[in-house]
């Protein structure tokens, strides 16, 4: 018999719900998945990667690309990506300190390293409600307490944030608050973008309450470039004057981006801009893991930017996802409009439609609806309750995240139809229709 007891951190890292969903997908191969957060397989840029690899390895002395890199990321690649980021931020490249840029193995690694570098058990993280459920798992692993802040269609409410921070100060817990986490563009799971007006106000609230220690605002901009309708808003990071006057104003926003959604999740390249004092602890932790993310993949990403192929690809990707978004939303209108108490948010970007059912219709893994949808109607979704802190007793249990990233338009429409049948039957069974 084994005498092994996993470490506390391993025990706190319970299997992510994503694992359960993937298992369900494998066991129900004929299921249409509105659950998978994957990107559109057909959109993945095989040709561009081939061309970029040919450019890289056709050049003289390309062996260095196959060598170890540096923990923080290849300097020349960071330089190229700084220019790309400066374009998005509408600033000069020099306004973004090169030595504060980090390249990671997907942005997920950055989120995890930041959590390890910033939180001790019992520290507090404030999050939008709902929020990215994988990060909630990361916060559990490091023993952080998570508090949900009121969130509406304009994103996290600055007044709600201010109120909760005030209450924590009253109860003597302000020192334990280390971070506010916001997915700022077309978020996962609800497709919501923090409005322009709220962006500086969230940062102001964080600054106001950073009296005892720095409260960082982690801006997760994973879906920033998947915008289909509107002009891209300035990032919350762009309001952080600490990056312009670092000697007089603390730097408080951590900007996290990724090329997973806009190019390929398989290359696993994430990009972060970190406040000065976080670079060393995060690099030290990363050094323990890998001495640096894959050198080859960093060069690939740099090459597609330098050649202009990235932008061309992104333009066609937006077009592709815009059409799918339209299919998902029009299918929601067609199939769910007649169901009383069902509503949804039409996103301006990203990969998700967030749907709310009457409160009595539970959507969790153990719910009759989930069973009915997966077993009888062969369609799968992500239960909304996963996207709220698990300790929150008042978390809503009647919502669903519906992804339009993976399925092709016909299957997407069919998936929405099947789900509407499952919901309608469940409502009838519970006497709601
Ligand atoms: C909001 C959000 N942040 C971060 C990530 C991590 O993505 P990656 O590690 O591929 O960059 C995801 C992935 O789905 C996400 O939805």
Secondary structure: elements and pairs:
Blueprint: H1 8-12, H2 17-27, E1 32-33, H3 46-58, H4 75-89, E2 101-105, H5 106-118, E3 124-128, H6 133-141, E4 145-149, E5 151-152, E6 155-156, H7 158-170, E7 177-183, H8 198-208, E8 216-220, E9 253-258, E10 269-273, H9 276-289, H10 295-306, H11 309-336, E11 343-345, E12 352-356, H12 368-376, E13 379-380, E14 382-383, E15 399-403, H13 409-429
Parallel strand pairs: 1-13, 3-4, 3-7, 7-8, 8-9
Antiparallel strand pairs: 2-10, 5-6, 9-10, 11-12, 12-15, 14-15
Describe the structure.
The structure is a single chain. Helix content is 40%, strand content 14%. By secondary structure, the protein is an alpha/beta fold. It folds into 2 domains: 8-44 and 312-429, Alpha-Beta Complex (Aspartate Aminotransferase, domain 1); 67-308, Aspartate Aminotransferase, domain 2 (3-Layer(aba) Sandwich). The strands form 4 sheets. Strands 2-10-9-8-7-3-4 form a 7-stranded mixed beta sheet, sandwiched between helices. It has a 4-stranded antiparallel beta sheet with strand order 11-12-15-14, covered by helices on one side. The chain has a two-stranded parallel ribbon with strand order 1-13. Strand 7, helix 8 (198-208) and strand 8 (216-220) form a beta-alpha-beta unit. It is globular. The chain starts with 7 loop residues before the first helix and ends with a helix. Bound molecules: pyridoxal-5'-phosphate. Residues 37, 106-108, 132, 183, 188, 220, 222, 258, 260, 265, 270 line the site of pyridoxal-5'-phosphate. The site of pyridoxal-5'-phosphate has 13 residues, from helix 5.
